[in-house]
Specification:
With 377 residues, the protein is of the alpha/beta class. It has two domains: 185 residues, Rossmann fold (3-Layer(aba) Sandwich); 176 residues, Glycogen Phosphorylase B (Rossmann fold). The chain has 13 helices and 15 strands. The protein has a seven-stranded parallel sheet, sandwiched between helices. Strands 12-11-10-13-14-15 form a six-stranded parallel sheet, sandwiched between helices. β11, α7 and β12 form a beta-alpha-beta unit. α6 crosses α11 and α9 packs across α12. It is globular and about 65 Å long. The relative contact order is 0.11. The mean pLDDT is 91.
Length: 377
């Protein structure tokens, strides 16, 4: 019997491309339902047929919700009429797309990058909210029927286990598109010169600046270190809180903060190389429900990492397991500032964290995409 598989991910990046490609060899027909593909140097296998959704818009929670909702209805009708005989593999976005399986009878599997409805807590939707209650009920019904359930860390697996037996959940490590990354020397990095950052110790956050990320803590830390002329806080990204952060920097007259938009793909290696310390932040309410992919970029680039997340987060596990930095609660502002100052002044400690990040990156390679395909079969 012919093997037909359709993947669902509204916002495809290199991770989904690698996963889909790993399935292409053994599938007779393979399709990808998506709003856009940002491959970042890895092309989709020519065997994969693309089927378009509304494009994901992450400008605000309202635009996210609108595009998620429209895409979910589009997915439902595509699966109902066009892919009725296909196996379905849901990947993360839109987060409610797999709820279609309450009404559809396809075989299906899930790769969970962010755990819903738990992540909704950051938007003020608590466990007593009807949406939260319905989604929790649906998870228990749907997960029981799934062929495979994959997630990306032990803490997240424990959270998913609220809805399905833990032994049913498979953990897969993610990876970065920048394997074998070669940092650009500071003396040759035009990005540093362009933004007048030469001879600075750069503490960099690069990623989404939304409600879930608590990036404003960077401004709080910068205030504590404003007298240190060498340390600069560089915030790169977009999202709901960008204007709020810019306003706070202006009100506090902080000369040690710089906010930039997302950099083009060809500039990203230079901006990543510019960092002396990378920052990964998660809001305490959801820090056990997600792992930002920037974590793996920082590892493969050999950067010391400042993790800001709750003690029960996967990021705290990484900090202790790999010793490539430290993890702090967002309330520990003075301790974070002291840690940044210590690392900025201690070259041997910087080197230790760099070495450990590179070692850690060996656990997060593209080979993990093939592991998913092997387990699936």
């Amino acid at each position: 019997m012919a093997r037909k598989i359709v993947f669902v991910n509204q916002a495809v990046n290199f991770l989904t491309v690698d996963i889909v490609n790993s399935f292409a060899e053994n599938a007779d027909e393979i399709a990808l339902i998506t709003g856009n593909v940002h491959a970042q140097g890895t092309d989709l296998d020519e065997k994969v047929r693309l089927d378009k959704l509304i494009r994901y818009n992450e400008k605000s929670f309202a635009t996210k919700t609108y595009t998620w909702t429209v895409a979910t209805f589009q997915v439902f009708f595509k699966l109902l009429f066009k892919y009725r005989k296909y196996e379905v593999f849901f990947v993360s976005v839109p987060p409610m797309s797999y709820l279609c399986m309450l009404l559809l009878r396809n075989r299906f599997s899930l790769l969970i990058w962010d755990v819903y409805p738990d992540t909704l807590k950051i938007y003020g939707i608590g466990s007593s909210n009807p949406v939260y209650l319905f989604w929790s009920w649906a998870n228990k019904k749907i997960f029981k029927r799934a062929d495979h359930i994959f997630t990306i860390g032990e803490k997240m697996a424990a959270l998913v286990a609220k809805y399905i037996q833990r032994e049913r959940i498979k953990i897969i490590n993610l990876w970065t598109t920048f394997e074998n990354f070669t940092p650009v020397a500071k003396t040759e990095n035009f990005f540093l010169k362009e933004h007048n950052l030469q001879d600075k110790f750069i503490v960099q956050y690069s990623g989404n600046i939304g409600l879930i990320h608590n990036v404003e803590v960077m401004v709080d830390i910068a205030k504590l270190l404003r007298q240190n002329n060498r340390i600069v806080f560089l915030i790169i990204g977009k999202g709901d809180k960008v204007n709020t952060i810019k306003q706070r920097i202006k009100e506090d007259a902080l000369e040690n903060c710089l906010v930039l938009p997302f950099q083009p793909d060809d500039v990203f290696p230079f901006s990543l190389s510019a960092a002396d310390m990378g920052v990964v932040i998660l809001n305490n309410k959801t820090s056990h429900a997600s792992i930002p992919n920037k974590t793996y970029n920082l590892m493969t680039a050999g950067k010391p990492v400042l993790y800001i997340a709750a003690e029960d987060s996967e990021l705290n596990v990484y900090a202790h397991k790999y010793n490539n930095g430290k993890c702090f609660d967002c309330s520990e502002l003075q301790a974070i500032a002291d840690f940044i100052r210590q690392v900025s002044e201690d070259v041997s400690l910087q080197q230790q964290y760099k070495t450990n990040s590179l070692k850690a990156s060996l656990d997060f390679t593209r080979q993990n995409a093939g592991v998913i395909a092997t387990w699936y079969s």
